[in-house]
Design a protein that fits this description.
Cytochrome c domain-containing protein, DUF1549, electron transfer activity, Cyt_c-like_dom_sf, mainly alpha
């Protein structure tokens, strides 16, 4: 790579990317802004799989991205765009050197290029997955708007809206509000009597009382259970071939009851994964472990039991990993 050419290109590039850069955050965040770009466009050849790494370059860690390559270059030289090969490779018009390569059928957008450049300029810092980063208490923004900011969450929202040039929507009337809450929490529209009662309730805690009433309805658990049952792949049929009917209502009702009774998530998890192994287990805990039997089931004549047992086990491992570990 010729540094002179790189310098000239980087000097004029801000003009071409000005519109994309306008919307960039003040501080580029690796997990929020950069990791997805690198993962989607670069990891196939420069990711964590050592067997597929090309050119000795890895872009999944600070050490890999900043180490000197055989060519003498470094993909990232913190705070130095001119010396960072990454900046040159993602902007050059030379198709033989442009990254991602043309035959990968991947192309960075103007915003993605601008984000990568700004990230390098700010030091090219990598950070742990958000789940392993200790949360920090952040002071609420000092913004106020009459009729909108009632708590700190509102202030954070208002700050983001103002940064984008937007204003909050007008406050919904009570008939609209009760419909939204009812559909969100129970999946059903409110009755005419419920609407009129809420409209006429002028007490300061009318909204909070409405939420409590909706949360106390059995339909709340049914509504919330829908999402969980989808994730664990609950079905009323066996899944193979003729897709014969096969219900597991006790497990379904256990999930509904767990939401209605506000069961702690850690307990909810233990009971499903190992309820049948718990000391002094209850009937509910045994039912909860039915999660492990939610796999598809074949009744085909001539099927190989060992083959399908392996399929069942693989399905549960895959599903448990997806549900609890994303």
């Amino acid at each position: 790579m010729k540094k002179t050419h790189c310098f000239i290109l980087l000097f004029f590039l801000p003009v071409a990317g000005a519109l994309a850069a306008d919307a960039l955050p003040d501080k580029v965040d690796y997990n929020g802004d950069i990791k997805r770009i690198l993962s989607n466009n670069c990891y196939a050849c420069h990711g964590p799989d050592a067997k597929k790494v090309k050119g000795g370059l890895r872009l999944d860690s600070f050490e890999g991205a900043t180490k000197e390559l055989k060519s003498g270059e470094r993909a990232i030289v913190p705070k130095d765009l001119v010396e960072s090969a990454l900046a040159y490779r993602i902007t050059t018009e030379d198709v033989d050197e442009r990254m991602p390569p043309a035959d990968s059928n991947k192309k960075l957008s103007g915003r993605e290029i601008a984000l990568l450049k700004k990230w390098v300029e700010q030091g090219g810092e990598f950070s742990k997955h958000w789940a392993y980063v200790a949360p920090k208490k952040v002071a609420a923004p000092k913004v106020e708007q009459k009729g909108f900011t009632q708590n700190d969450i509102d202030r954070f929202i208002l700050e983001r809206l103002k940064a984008k040039g937007f204003n909050p929507a007008k406050e919904a009337d009570r008939r609209t509000l009760i419909r939204r809450l009812s559909f969100d929490l129970t999946g059903l529209p409110p009755t005419w009597q419920e609407v009129e009662a809420f409209v006429k309730d002028k007490s300061p805690k009318a909204y909070e009382k409405l939420i409590d009433r909706l949360l106390a309805k059995p339909q709340y658990g049914e509504r919330m259970a829908v999402y969980w049952l989808d994730m664990v792949r609950y079905a009323d049929t066996i899944g193979y071939h003729s897709d014969n009917h096969e219900t597991k209502p006790l497990y379904r009702d256990y999930v509904i009851s767990a939401f209605n009774n506000n069961k702690p998530y850690d307990q909810f998890t233990r009971e499903q994964l190992a309820g049948d192994l718990m000391k002094d287990r209850t009937t509910d805990q045994l039912i909860a472990s039915g999660y492990n039997r939610l796999n598809m089931n074949t009744r085909e004549g001539g099927s190989q039991p060992k083959e399908y047992t392996a399929k069942y086990l693989a399905d549960r491992v895959r599903n448990a990993s997806t549900v609890w570990m994303s």
